[in-house]
Amino acid sequence: MRYIIILIAVITCTSSQAQNFIDKGLIEYTVVVNNHKAMGESQFAEMFKDKISKLSTSYYQLTFNNGKGIYLFNRKEEKAKSLFGNDAGEEAIWYSDYENEKFIQQKNIFGDTYILSDSLLTIDWKMTNESRNIAGFNCRKAVGVLFDSVYVFAFYTDEIMVSGGPMGIHGLPGMILGITIPRMYSSWVANKIIVNGVNYAIIVPPGKGKKKKPKELESTILNATKDWGSYGQQAVWNMFL
Q1: CB distance 189 to 178 below 8 Å
Q2: What's the predicted TM-score (pTM) here?
Q3: How far apart are CA 233 and CA 214, in angstroms?
Q4: Is the pLDDT of residue 84 over 70?
Q5: What angle do CA 99, 173, 125 make, to 5 degrees?
Q6: 76/80 Cα distance (integer angstroms)
Q7: Sorting pLDDT into bands at 50, 70 and 90, what band is 90?
Q8: Helices (H) and strands (E) in the chain — how many of each?
Q9: CA pair distance 132, 61, nearest whole angstrom
């Protein structure tokens, strides 16, 4: 009888733990950007700092299923003022095929809509022993490098069994629920995770726009933003994330 009780307890415990693991759902991220710091100290920045909010807060949602995900703008705080009206990121669509390490993105770049496709970003991750709880999930910290020199501090959970995250950031053994990129003065933190009643039909590649590889637009973007100072560098990184 004693062994039967132990066996039942083990099965119950195992079943309870298995229920914690997720392979599909919807994650909402709170995205905060310090616009004034991102603009730097150039003459261009000083001309426009009083016309935009110091901090802007937006909400994006990542819907994922079957090893694929789509990341979309949802809403922003009404009090946040942008220099150019709607952010280009509000119109962007990030479609990621995590299993095949490919992406297809729809982005507005200088007034034109493009469909960009390529392999997912290569990020050199290093694990740390630091951890924290985000949206009820235990997360471990990892440090990565983007664009050769831009550090990314991420918290991921292996309780969500998809190697994804906001935008095109990926490559950890679980879902990224928190990111800070100091040189972009930006942070992404999951505020809720939904697993029931999610519309998975929206996970389809975008198709509206001129088809290009990101590398084909690189020189055009760099030339257009070369006189923007720090704000220009921020714009370039945003376009390729």
Answers
A1: yes
A2: 0.85
A3: 16
A4: no
A5: 105
A6: 8
A7: confident
A8: 6, 12
A9: 21
Distance between CA 182 and CA 178 in Å, rounded?
A: 13
HSE (side-chain half, CA atoms, 13 Å) at 188: 26
Integer Cα distance of 192 and 67 in angstroms? 20
Question: Is a pLDDT exceeding 50 seen at residue 164?
Answer: yes
Whether residue 12 is predicted with pLDDT greater than 50 in this model: the reply is no
Segment of 42-56, 194-208, 215-229 carrying the highest mean pLDDT? 194-208
Nearest alpha-carbon partner for 69 in 90, 35, 95, 88: 95
**Helix pair 214-225, 230-240: axis angle to 10 deg:** 170
End-to-end CA distance of the chain: 59
Task: Count how many residues are written for the chain.
Answer: 241
Give me the percent of the chain exceeding a pLDDT of 70.
82
pLDDT score at 198: 98
Q: Which helix (H) or strand (E) holds 152?
A: strand 150-157
Bridge partners (DSSP) listed for residue 28: 61, 192
Phi, psi of 234, deg, nearest 5: -60, -40
Q: Is the pLDDT of residue 93 over 80?
A: yes
Rounded distance between C-alpha atoms, residue 42 and residue 191, angstroms: 35
Residues 142 and 125: beta-carbon distance below 8 Å: yes
- DSSP 8-state assignment for residue 125: -
For each of the domains in the chain, give its residue range(s) and CATH number, in order of start: 21-240 (2.50.20)
Strands laid side by side in the 137-146 sheet: 126-134, 137-146, 150-157, 175-181, 186-194, 25-34, 55-65, 68-76, 93-97, 102-109, 112-119, 210-212
Q: Which residues pair with 60 in a beta bridge?
A: 29, 73
